[in-house]
Amino acid sequence: MKSRVVDFVVGIFIIAALLALLFLAFRVSNLTNFGNGKYYKITAEFDNIGGLKIRAPVSVSGVKIGEVATISLDSNNYRALVSMRINARYNNLPIDTSANIFTQGILGSNYISLSPGFDEANLKAGSRIETTHSALVLENLIGQLIYSLKSDNDGSQKKKNEKGEGS
Amino acid sequence: MEFVFKIGRFGVTSCIRIGQSGFFLFRVIGQKPRWGQLLFLWIEQIYRVGVLSLIIILLSALFIGMVVALQGYHILEKFGATEELGQMLALTVLRELGPVITALLFVGRACSSLTAEIGLMRATQQLDCMEMMAVDPLWRVISPRFWAGIISLPLLTILFNVTAIYGGVLVGVDWLGVDSGTFWSNMQSAVNFRSDVFNGVIKSLVFAVVVTWIAVYQGFYAAPNSLGISRATTKTVVYSSLMILALDFALTALMMGGW
To answer: Do A132 and A79 share a structural domain?
Structure first.
């Protein structure tokens, strides 16, 4: 009799642990988000993807509709080739949709935002987004800013010198 | 001169112990699987090692989840990022705290008693009696305890993870007022099943093998007297804890560093 009680308790222990694993899989991690296989893939080429990572969200008007699947380098023209998994529910994106890489907040991670165009035809599995805008790289912006400030300074100094010579 | 002899003696004995424990592990694993006869022994050992450890492990998990949520909330509040609390809690618990703390508690609760039990069997010559009756003590005594430990610790770790996350929910959502929806959705978007949940379980599986191995080895080769048993039990706890922490670093580097 006692051995049956032990068997029962051990059975409950193992079942509880397996249920807990299911809980971790479906409630805590993102196994279910795009796990049902109902998605289609589209690609886009960018000049610079900044800090974009695999599994970064793809959104339209801020609503998440998919995620970045793979990132690779096109060895012919040295542009970044990004393929995205888009949930099959959103299958009416026009073919002249454009893709932007934005940053969530100031220090946040990068994501792709799609802005739908006006064409009648829709994007299908495997089609490519033609219009893309690269990520804003902060260092480049600062570099440009410093460069323009410098050239401004040089220009004003030259003017001063010319003025000095003139007088 | 005497000092050099001592160092040499120490080196030789440590090498012998390491080799002996390796052979011991192979002999335990290499047992012919006689499932029908072993099943009831396994269940009894899983009950003693796993089920009886549940209360201490679940209680610690609850408090650890609560304290991680409380500390995390006050740190994240400084950056105005309290909605990231779920993500922080889940990743901390699943990757590090879950496997490591469960293993440390398991060593204290279950492995020490395994060593003491087997050591006392050795001291009272029960193991010798078994050999006299042509019953292999490795098969009858060691093997069920070894496998029960390996099965129990990952299961306990999974239960620890869930309880700790609910402890964090209790503090973060119910007490400190983080929004429940953002809490869970942030957690889901950050936690990856393969690289976070599954890697944590693999970690605890490795800990389980090492920790139970040390426990049964120390018990089996304990000096057959009361001093020997007490020293073996201490060694089990000390060595196992050190191995858990060192292996945790190595496994984390292996899993995250992408060697």
So the answer is: yes
| Dist CA B8 CA B14 (whole Å) | 10
Q: Which pLDDT score, from 0 to 100, does residue B187 have?
A: 84
Yes or no, beta carbons of A30 and B193 under 8 Å apart: yes
Residue of A9, A12, A13, A104 best to disrupt the B interface, most CBs of B under 10 A: A13
In total, how many domains does chain A have?
2
For A86-130, what is each residue's pLDDT tens digit? 888 888 888 888 888 888 766 667 888 888 888 888 888 888 888
CB contact set of B155 (below 8 Å; sequence gap of 6+): A13, A14, A17, B50
Shared domain for A3 and A55, answered yes or no, is no
* Token pair of A88 as six digits: 């099959």
Same domain, yes or no: A26 and A43:
no
Residue of higher predicted confidence among B249 and B258: B249
Closest CA–CA distance from residue B89 to any residue of chain A (Å): 11
Q: How far is CA B222 from CA B29, B122, B127, B234, in A?
A: 20, 7, 12, 11
% of residues, chain B, pLDDT over 70: 97
B30-37 own/partner pairs: CB under 8 Å, 24+ apart: B31/B138, B31/B139, B31/B143, B34/B139
Is A155 part of any domain?
no
Matching residue, tokens 């080429």: A45
Q: How many domains does chain B have?
A: 1
A29 closest CB neighbour out of B46, B162, B193 = B193
The ipTM assigned to this model is: 0.78
pLDDT tens digits for B183-208? 887 888 788 888 888 899 999 999 99
Parent domain of A5: 1-32
- Residue A157 in this model has a pLDDT that exceeds 80: no
pLDDT in tens, A15-64: 999 898 888 887 777 665 554 567 888 888 888 888 787 778 888 888 88
A92 and A47 within one domain:
yes
> In terms of Cα–Cα distance, which of B108, B17, B92 is closest to B57?
B108
Q: In chain A, which residues have their Cβ closer than 8 Å to the Cβ of B189?
A: 30, 33, 57
**Quick check: B123 and B224 in contact, CB under 8 A?**
yes
CA–centroid distance for B206 within its chain: 8
A10–B50 CB contact, under 8 Å: yes
- Provide the 8-state DSSP code for B126: H
